Amino acid sequence: MTFRRRDRHGRGLRGPLAPSYVPMAKARSERFDDLVLDAVDRLRPKWDRQLSAVEFAVEEVPPLSELGDGPGFGADPIPLGRADSARGHDPASIVLYRRPLEARARDRDALGALVHDTVVEQVASLLGLSPETVDPGYEDRH
User: Fold this and answer.
1) R_g of the chain computed on alpha carbons
2) What whole-number distance in Å separates Cα of residue 56 and Cα of residue 54?
3) pLDDT tens digit string along 103-119?
4) Tally of CB atoms within 10 A around 54
């Protein structure tokens, strides 16, 4: 038995559409992770000591336990992220939810700004500060 390879028109096997070093070659989830890391890096000069023990993570969607239950629950029943304080041996963590953030952004620039604002809000929540204290430019964007 012989298997036919996908080599129409004699041009050889298909390769990647873009070289691995260009942004287009990254998956959406990898590009989103980069946006989160960029947002954290922007806060590090001022908050490095406080953020050194905080773990940052990305999840696709919030767990069912965090979702609102119908109208009247709040202005936005789908959270964009969460901040958890350190407990026992578990370090403090900040989790951003990729799908809800992507759904609210109209383009890549808006997504970057929304991710940054969400990181600022979660860091502020974790540290018990206002978002304007964590990032003075936050008030100008809202």
Assistant:
1) 20
2) 6
3) 999 999 999 999 999 99
4) 20
Whole-angstrom CA distances from 1 to 8, 13, 27 are 20, 21, 37
Pick from 103, 117, 93: which is nearest to 36 by CA? 117
Helix (H) or strand (E) holding 57: strand 55-59
Q: Please state whether the predicted TM-score (pTM) of the whole model is above 0.90.
A: no
Residue of 28, 29, 31, 56 lying closest to 41 (CA atoms)? 56
Phi, psi angles (nearest 5°) of residue 74: 175, 175
102 burial class (0-12, 13-18, 19+ CB within 10 angstroms)? Answer: middle
Of 92, 95, 85, the C-alpha closest to 63 is: 95
> Which residue stretches of 23-92 are H helix?
28-51
The pLDDT confidence band at residue 10, using thresholds 50, 70 and 90, is low
C-alpha dist (Å) from residue 19 to 22, 25, 28, 29, 68? 6, 7, 16, 18, 43
